[in-house]
């Protein structure tokens, strides 16, 4: 059985958007045409692919399997189109980069600037998400470059150590730790509220593992979904946090945060590039990789 690729595209768009009307808008065709196309496709493959509910549509088990392969197929199609454009001395096309939050906010802008100056015809798209989400986007062929802050255990991905990042304990200036000129023992954190990122964050995982190894368990934790918001919460006296040193220079300079040394606990983490083994790399991705591995637009964080 040969799949009708036009009908496959209609079905995949419905799955991605969650409704026939949104799929019709995305493809610029009528909703009846979408509905008929999906019905014809289900007849062709011989099974129901979508469950239709009052709240929208969702794929059946068979639909989920087919959609997964379809996304990979259409990602390969986009990659072929991008490669054909970019083969002309990288004069056109696009590059989709995924980076976890700290990397995207504080570390990648100089690399993007270097790439843009060298290849101004390439459209850059930066996706910011936590480590697990970036890994999923890479597996789904939605991005060509993936830079993350935490280790990813996935047999379908290859992790390459990229940079080393030092983590620092920050407090507000009135905090009792702020005057400790010789630093503190890590055990002192057991009496504190530790402000942490959301589950799936690479920085949260690294800090949790380091503290668990030393038997340190904070009195309570406060979960906040961004490093910027964590810094503001610490400055407001809501607790202490352990964050990337690359993220704090502005607030330390302004006197809103203090860095406190931990005498017996030094937390460093490796930043990673994720790759899918065997995937054909478009030239724009290869050019960006050369920049992040060879060019050093700023000093290492370590």
Automatic annotation (TrEMBL):
NodD regulates the expression of the nodABCFE genes which encode other nodulation proteins. NodD is also a negative regulator of its own expression. Binds flavonoids as inducers. It holds the Pfam family LysR_substrate. The keyword DNA-binding applies. GO terms for molecular function: DNA-binding transcription factor activity; transcription cis-regulatory region binding. Keywords: DNA-binding, Transcription, Transcription regulation. The keyword Transcription applies. This is LysR family transcriptional regulator. Residues 3-60 form the HTH lysR-type domain. It comes from Bradyrhizobium archetypum. Belongs to the LysR transcriptional regulatory family. It comes from the Bacteria. Coiled coil: none annotated. The lineage of its organism: Bacteria, Pseudomonadati, Pseudomonadota, Alphaproteobacteria, Hyphomicrobiales.
């Amino acid at each position: 059985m040969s799949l009708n690729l036009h009908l496959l595209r209609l079905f995949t768009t419905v799955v991605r958007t969650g409704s026939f009307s949104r799929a019709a808008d995305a493809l610029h065709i009528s909703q009846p045409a979408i509905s008929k196309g999906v019905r014809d496709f289900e007849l062709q493959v011989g099974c129901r692919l979508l469950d239709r509910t009052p709240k929208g549509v969702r794929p059946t088990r068979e639909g989920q399997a087919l959609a997964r392969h379809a996304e990979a197929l259409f990602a390969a199609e986009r990659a072929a189109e991008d490669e054909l454009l970019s083969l002309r001395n990288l004069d056109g096309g696009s590059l989709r980069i995924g980076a976890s939050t700290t990397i995207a906010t504080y570390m990648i802008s100089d690399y993007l600037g270097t790439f843009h100056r060298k290849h101004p015809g390439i459209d850059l798209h930066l996706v910011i998400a936590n480590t697990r989400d970036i890994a999923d986007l890479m597996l789904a062929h939605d991005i060509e470059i993936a830079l993350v802050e935490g280790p990813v255990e996935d047999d379908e991905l290859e992790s390459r150590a990229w940079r080393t990042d030092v983590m620092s304990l920050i407090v507000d200036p009135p905090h009792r730790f702020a005057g400790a000129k010789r630093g503190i023992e890590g055990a002192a954190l057991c009496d504190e509220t530790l402000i942490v990122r959301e589950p799936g964050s690479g920085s949260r995982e690294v800090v949790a593992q380091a503290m668990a190894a030393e038997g340190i368990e904070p009195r309570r934790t406060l979960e906040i979904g961004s490093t910027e918001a964590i810094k503001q919460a610490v400055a407001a006296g809501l607790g202490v946090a352990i964050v990337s040193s690359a993220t704090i220079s502005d607030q330390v300079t302004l006197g809103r945060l203090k860095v406190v040394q931990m005498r017996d606990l030094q937390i460093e983490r490796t930043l990673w590039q994720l790759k899918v083994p065997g995937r054909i790399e478009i030239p724009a991705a290869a050019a960006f990789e050369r920049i992040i591995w060879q060019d050093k637009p700023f000093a290492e964080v370590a």
